[in-house]
Amino acid sequence: MNSDLSSERLHSAAGYAEAAEALVEQYESVAFAEVHREALHLFPTRQSWVLDIGAGSGRDAAALASRGHRVVAAEPTAELRTLGERIHADQDIEWVDDALPELAGLRERGRRFDLILLTAVWMHLDEQQRSSAMAGLVSLLNDGGRVILSLRHGPVPIGRRMFPVSAEETIDLARGCGLEVILLSERDDPHGRQGVTWTSLGLQAGTIRDR
Question: CA geometry: angle at 37 spanning 76 and 204, to 5°?
């Protein structure tokens, strides 16, 4: 990994390594079904290849693996990967060190997925990175594949790198890359944090298939 890319990845994940144990406890305190309640009907029911980007503690990856999916969990913060692998050792999850906007490792290996999940990830990318990242996501999708992502709105925690993101910008990027919007919903923060809200987006590539 070149030094510029390494620096960018560390900057994007600023504050996560130091707070890994507390963050894992926070992530695991809310169930997968509650976090994704607006999008649950979009998750595949048959066995599928799933990529969880910014997998954190592995909560979502483990839930999907337990449903019979073949799950790759991409997490650039080593401390979170280590804790996630230990907590969810009973689930068949492939953990990888990879991150947006490049996802270089997965793209170099030609991996393709039926579902890509990004939970509380998109706001870590600046405007230029978001543009290139959307095209990168599309390159990893199988025909008819879906992207489910959440957009965080609200105050930025001290020591974190986050940028304002809007549903409108994200939808424009998605449509520009050939994705169809199949879900747009808003909700309060499942952790009850003051001033924090979320937008859930479901995006579809190509022709909608029977899932």
Answer: 70
Tell whether pTM > 0.85.
yes
Instruction: Single out the residue of 73, 68, 204, 85 nearest to residue 149, CA to CA.
Output: 204
Question: Over 50: is that where the pLDDT of 122 sits?
Answer: yes
Which secondary-structure segment (H or E) carries 62?
A: helix 59-66
In degrees to the nearest 10, what's the CA dihedral of 3, 8, 13, 19? Answer: 50
Domain ranges across the chain? 3-205
| Superfamily classification of domain 3-205 | Vaccinia Virus protein VP39 (3.40.50.150)
The dihedral built from the CA positions of residue 192, 60, 106 and 90, taken in this order, carries a sign that is positive
Model confidence pLDDT, tens digit, residues 14-35: 556 767 788 788 889 899 999 9
